[in-house]
Design goal:
GO cellular component, one term: plasma membrane
Protein name: Monosaccharide ABC transporter membrane protein (CUT2 family)
Number of domains: 1
Shape: globular
GO molecular function, one term: transmembrane transporter activity
InterPro entries: ABC_transp_permease
Distance between the termini: 36 Å
Strand order of the largest sheet: 1-2
Radius of gyration: 22 Å
CATH architecture: Orthogonal Bundle
Keywords: Cell membrane, Membrane, Transmembrane, Transmembrane helix
Number of helices: 16
Number of strands: 2
Length: about 325
């Protein structure tokens, strides 16, 4: 039996569930309020926002690219939605325009990287910074709150169905659609083929540039969807809304991929659950956010090291090289 087969999907799933149980038990012992109904409700709300941002990022990671612009896109989308709500526009129109703005900036990223051949990291840093700067145009940097109470956006945070927040159903619905698109459709196969070998995929007739463009567009759209949930929770729109998506989203995607053996929608959801549980636990314990981010980053690195077969093999080879040689027997 090979090493990979002995550490298959079932073992990875069991390891993930055990890890979640251990983390939850540790926080529950350290802080009894962790398992209260109100805190668990807060965990699900935060998980929904982080999960939506991570779902779109999954498409970009599958095509082997990086997107550092989606926090800036979220900031711009938040202020766009807030500005239209304050102007008295219907909620559906405000959210729709915000989503179009996210898609447009994502399209710029995808066109520049996919068709223009520009480096993804530099390009998305630039567009993300521009988007974050444009967020200040609407109000000069002031928080927008007018008409929020009457717009209906707060219902996205307050409404519960069968005792579960509406935002969780939104996350699951988007995840289901993303799963079908990425794992059950011909267009989804183009994402995977582009990520595995874009040259071979192109010679096979796959529109790799279009797949790259679509991945960035999806990432921009889900970033705005995520920040809409933040607006619903806070009841205001601020230029900094969405700026904190970067670390949880990347940690959710890569930690989930490390645990479950590859980037996928279920892996992203699993990683998001674990990261949100950690961040909420640290917040409840009063740990400063910078310590929480450091611990989450360390756990991300340890998770990749523990579950990535190539890294584990390298560590084992290094340990074997450093181990003292066995004494030779006398002839």
């Amino acid at each position: 039996m090979t090493r990979s087969s002995s550490f298959g999907p079932l073992a990875r799933t069991v390891a993930f569930l055990v890890l979640v149980a251990v983390v939850v038990a540790a926080f529950a012992i350290a802080e009894p309020r962790y398992l209260t109904k109100s805190n668990l409700s807060a965990v699900t709300r935060h998980m929904s926002a982080n999960g939506l941002a991570a779902l779109g990022l999954t498409f970009v990671v599958v095509v082997r690219r990086f997107d550092l612009s989606f926090p800036g896109i979220a900031c711009f989308g938040a202020m766009t939605v807030g500005f239209l709500i304050a102007a008295g526009q219907p909620l559906w129109l405000a959210i729709g325009v915000g989503l179009l703005a996210g898609a447009a900036i994502g399209a710029v990223n995808g066109w520049a990287v996919g068709y223009g051949g520009l480096p993804d990291i530099v390009t998305t840093i630039a567009t993300g910074s521009i988007a974050a700067g444009l967020a200040f145009v609407y109000s000069g940097g002031r928080t927008i709150f007018q008409n929020f109470m009457l717009s209906g956006i707060l219902d996205l945070n307050d409404v519960r169905i069968l005792g579960i927040n509406l935002s969780v159903y939104i996350l699951l619905a988007v995840a289901a659609a993303a799963h079908v698109l990425l794992h059950r459709s011909r267009f989804g196969a183009a994402f995977h083929a582009t990520g595995e070998n874009d040259v071979s995929a192109w010679f096979s007739g796959i529109r790799t540039k279009m797949a790259t463009l679509a991945a960035f567009v999806i990432c921009g759209v889900t970033a705005v969807m995520a920040v809409v949930l933040l607006l619903a929770e806070s009841g205001t729109a601020d230029t900094n809304d969405g700026a904190g998506f970067l670390m949880p989203a990347y940690a959710g995607v890569f930690l989930g991929a490390a645990i479950l053996g590859g980037a996928s929608i279920p892996a992203t959801l699993a990683g998001t659950v674990l990261i949100t549980i950690l961040l909420d636990g640290f917040s409840l314990l009063g740990v400063p956010y910078y310590y929480g981010d450091g611990v989450v980053s360390t756990i991300l690195l340890l998770g990749v090291l523990a579950f990535d077969s190539r890294l584990r093999g390298a560590v084992e080879r290094l340990a074997g090289f450093l181990a003292p040689a066995a004494p030779r027997r006398a002839p």
